[in-house]
Design a protein that fits this description.
This protein is of the alpha+beta class. Among the domains are: 104 residues, no CATH class; 100 residues, Roll (PH-domain like); 36 residues. A hairpin with an 8-residue loop joins β5 and β6. The protein is elongated and about 175 Å long. This is Switch-associated protein 70.
């Protein structure tokens, strides 16, 4: 039955087969596990085109829920007025379940009602009510709103008829989109006579009826962005005239007075301007703006709460940090007091130590005075020692001269030894050369062997002579080494003497600087180090060796 009635009200074809198919697995029907909402969404609500009477649809929903939820206590409003308040609640409520109307929308509705009743708005009274409401809940349900309006709390002194008229006016504006309504005179198109009609202005149409009960509708004036309205001068005994121009027709209308005329002209022109801009009706646009403002305020409040939580967390962290710092300061203060105590104790100890040091310094000063007297006597001894050092200096010069002569002898022996070594090297090279030639001669033919044998004998004799010369050179080298050892011993003796004199001079506080012999001529370098002979001696030795070599050949 419910599905059939919904399809009838919403102008949707009813399909009983789909209903039976949806619940075929369960004998309990609408209370099955699949539920009624999936069927309602799929087979009824998805097929709605929008060409249905919303008031009749609301009336059906009201019939389903009013008996169960409507308060049993007596109200100042009728059931019809309660229905209208319920429909207004559905329009103004938030888009989430369970549906509630927030205090801002309650204030908007009550202001509309009091304005329609012609009484002043009691802001202070509503503020007290709002404070009491916010402490307990976020808003009111539909039935609580009906109780609030029906209790007369904000319409004291008004009779039931006035309250009912105010509810009806607000219902017409918010639900039926009635922007303005009232009696005016309209000039006929055929008879050109003037007849009184009840005009109802909506966002895209002006309908006119015989009376305000809206039972006998006489026609419509379709509005669009091309329509316009303009005032007309009085004529034919009619006053407060204005003209509504549409594409196909024009309508002459007479208001009851100038105020009504101006109100209707302004209302119609505002409606045309909204149609041009494609904007919704003013009350719907205002509702959307209020909703966006609430969402913005809610987002700002949530952001503020988040920031407050962050600040609270940061404050708690700071408090913990401050507590830690306080404990650290207390510990530092305790350490500072301990260190101050130690410092005072150390200061006392230092004062005692300084007193002892002062006494000790006095004793040292006395000793220094005694030492000064002793130094004076030592100075005389020092002068005597200087004179002795001068005498020792003369003896040191003589020792240095002996050392220089010993070095010259060493150089001569070194030069002689180097020459002998060079001669020995040359002889060895020549012997190796002869030995190679002898090996080559052995490889000659048998015919040349006798001649080569003779030459070999000659060369062997020459080799024997060279060997004798080499032995002679070896003897001379040994003699030179013996001479070098003797010179070296002399040099070591002279160096020891020099060293003893150096130690004596250093012992006598270094007043005399030793003068050592230096190198005057450039030295030749041999395989054993600097040569012990000059270039002239080397040349003379080479000429002697070459002469001996020529004689042996």
């Amino acid at each position: 039955v419910l599905s059939h009635n919904l399809c009838t009200v919403l102008n949707v074809p009813h399909d009983p087969v789909a209903l039976e198919e949806h619940f075929r697995d369960d004998d309990e029907g609408p209370v099955s596990n699949q539920g009624y909402m999936p069927y309602l969404n799929k087979f009824i609500l998805e097929k709605v085109q929008g060409n249905f009477d919303k008031v009749e649809f609301n009336r059906m929903c009201w019939t389903l829920c009013a008996k169960k939820n409507l308060s049993k206590s007596p109200l100042l409003i009728s059931d019809e007025d309660a229905f209208k308040v319920w429909v207004i609640f559905n329009f103004l409520s938030e888009d989430k379940y369970p549906l509630i109307i927030v205090p801002e929308e309650i204030e908007y509705l009550l202001k509309k009602l009091t304005e329609a009743m012609g009484v002043g708005w009691q802001q202070e009274q509503f503020d007290h009510y709002k404070i009491a409401l916010n402490t307990s809940r976020e808003g009111l349900s539909a039935w609580e709103l009906i109780d609030l309006v029906g209790s007369g709390q904000f319409s004291k002194g008004m009779d039931r008829q006035t309250v009912s008229m105010a509810i009806n006016e607000v219902f017409n504006e918010l639900i039926l989109d009635v922007l303005k309504q009232g009696y005016m005179l309209k000039k006929g198109h055929k008879r050109k006579n003037w007849m009184e009609r009840w005009f109802v202005l909506k966002p895209n149409i002006i309908s006119y009826y015989v009376s305000e009960d809206l039972k006998d509708k006489k026609g419509d004036i379709i509005l669009d962005g091309n329509c316009c309205v303009e005032a007309l001068p009085d004529k034919d005994g009619k006053k407060c005239l204005f003209l509504i121009k549409c594409l196909d027709k024009s309508f002459e209308i007479s208001a009851s007075d100038k105020k009504k005329k101006q109100e209707w002209i302004q209302a119609i022109q505002t409606t045309v301007n909204l149609l041009k801009a494609g904007s919704p009706p003013p009350h719907k646009e205002a509702r959307q703006k209020r909703k966006e403002l609430r969402q913005k305020l809610l987002a700002e409040q949530e952001e503020l709460e988040r920031q407050m939580k962050e600040l609270q967390t940061a404050n708690e962290n700071k408090q913990r940090e401050l507590e830690t710092v306080r404990k650290q300061l207390e510990a530092a203060a305790a350490r500072a007091a301990e260190e101050e105590k130690k410092r005072l104790q150390t200061q006392v100890e230092l004062q005692d130590r300084f007193s002892l040091e002062l006494e000790r310094e006095k004793m040292v000063r006395q000793k220094m005075e005694e030492q000064v007297a002793q130094k004076s006597s030592e100075l005389e001894q020092y002068l005597q020692r200087v004179r002795e050092l001068e005498e020792m200096y003369k003896q040191l010069q003589e020792a240095l001269e002996d050392e220089r002569q010993a070095r010259q002898d060493e150089e001569t022996v070194r030069k002689l030894q180097a020459r002998l070594l060079e001669e020995e090297s040359a002889k060895r090279a020549e012997l190796e050369k002869w030995h190679l030639q002898q090996q080559q001669t052995i490889q000659m033919t048998e015919a040349e062997k006798q001649e080569l044998e003779n030459q070999r004998m000659i060369k062997e004799q020459a080799l024997q002579v060279a060997m004798q010369q080499l032995e002679q050179l070896e003897l001379e080298r040994k003699e030179a080494l013996e001479q070098y050892e003797e010179v070296k011993k002399k040099l070591e003796t002279a160096a020891n003497n020099t060293k003893s004199w150096k130690d004596k001079v250093a012992h006598h506080e270094g007043l005399i600087r030793l003068i050592e012999p230096g190198s005057k001529n450039p030295h030749l370098i041999t395989n054993w180090g600097p040569a012990a002979f000059t270039e002239a001696e080397l040349e003379q030795r080479q000429r002697s060796w070459k002469g001996k070599k020529a004689t042996s050949e």
